[in-house]
Amino acid sequence: MSEIPPRSRGVIALLESNCTSCMLCVRECPDWCITLESHQETVEVPGGRPRQRNVLDRFAIDFALCMYCGICVEVCPFDALFWSPAYDYAAGDIAGLTHERDQLGEWLGSLPPPEPEPGSQRPPG
Amino acid sequence: MIAGATETVAFGQRTVDVPAASWVAAATAARDERGLDCFDWLSAVDELDRFDVVLAVYSVSPLTRVRLRTRVDRDEPRLASVTGVFAGAAWHERETHEMFGIDFDGHPGPAPLLLPDGFSGHPLRKDFVLAARVAKAWPGEKEPGGVAARRRVRPPGVPEGWADE
Fold first, then answer.
1. Dist CA B67 CA B30 (whole Å)
2. CA-based nearest distance B64→chain A, Å
3. Rounded to whole angstroms, how far apart are CA atoms B50 and B69?
């Protein structure tokens, strides 16, 4: 993997804890390849009114349809989606290219270290 | 120089707009007078009120790329073929013919190139309804949290009433 540039578009990783189920990625996807299901739960806030919160039930990306445009990554307001340069996920049948939330979460482990801010004096890492 | 031609440079790309009547003359002049003797590609753009046919040519040395563009009537889309100037345009005109329904007068064999036998319609016209968009429900129709929608959200880029039929 070392020869692959860190910003290559290999696969999309999901950081579930950042996802608010806002549906922006699903709606902006030109290929309609993201499926998101969620429900609302009431959370008791000590000393305040109970709040409504979206809970993610399903998040899946069909990489057989995905055209790797990255619009979902760009549009996510909460940094829940990330490009990973990992590419080795060929599947024996087409259903195997639909990655569910657990598999999308596992891709987080393949993310390169973040690039330094422009103008930063510290070396990366 | 072609009468009525206008030249513009946008995003580093030089485009020459020519009247449809001088399409072949413009291609000939590009090849013979400007040295743009390499054919790159030919295609069209559905601009809803018309079609733009675009011909991309270049010269190898010095490397210069130019696009020729002309407007074609949408109700009766036809244009003279440039296969007499650039033989390589033949397949591109066949593809543009089947995808946009533009007739190229003087084309040596305008049979469909990519579409299967019996296919009806012109898939790259913007009013062509994509079967995949009708067969599959838009995943963005669901609301965050699964609550009932206040108003119906439309998929971006899909015209009003398109998938409702």
1. 10
2. 29
3. 12
Rounded Cα–Cα distance for residues B93 and B89 (Å):
6
The amino acid present at A31, given as its one-letter code, is: D
Nearest CA to B145 out of A99, A14, A53 is that of A53
Alpha-carbon gap, residue A5 to A123, rounded angstroms: 18
How far apart are alpha carbons A113 and B77 in whole angstroms? 54
Q: Do B57 and B97 form a contact (C-beta atoms < 8 A)? A: no
Average confidence score pLDDT of chain B:
91
Distance from B144 to chain A by nearest Cα, in Å?
A: 5
Q: Which residues of A touch B136 (CB under 8 A)?
A: 32
Q: Please state, in angstroms and as integers, the Cα–Cα distance from residue A117 to each residue in A8, A120, A122, B6, following that order.
A: 19, 5, 9, 45
- Per-residue confidence band for A124, with pLDDT thresholds at 50, 70 and 90: low
Q: Could you give the CA distance from residue A10 to residue A46 in angstroms, rounded to a whole number?
A: 44
Residues in contact with A125: Cβ distance below 8 Å, sequence separation at least 6, in sequence order: A113
Q: Which residues in chain A are contacts of B139 at CB distance < 8 A?
A: 26, 29, 32, 34-36
Summarize pLDDT for A68-105 with one digit per residue, the tens.
Answer: 999 999 999 999 999 999 999 999 999 999 999 999 99
- pLDDT given at position B126: 87
Task: Indicate the DSSP class of residue A116.
Answer: P
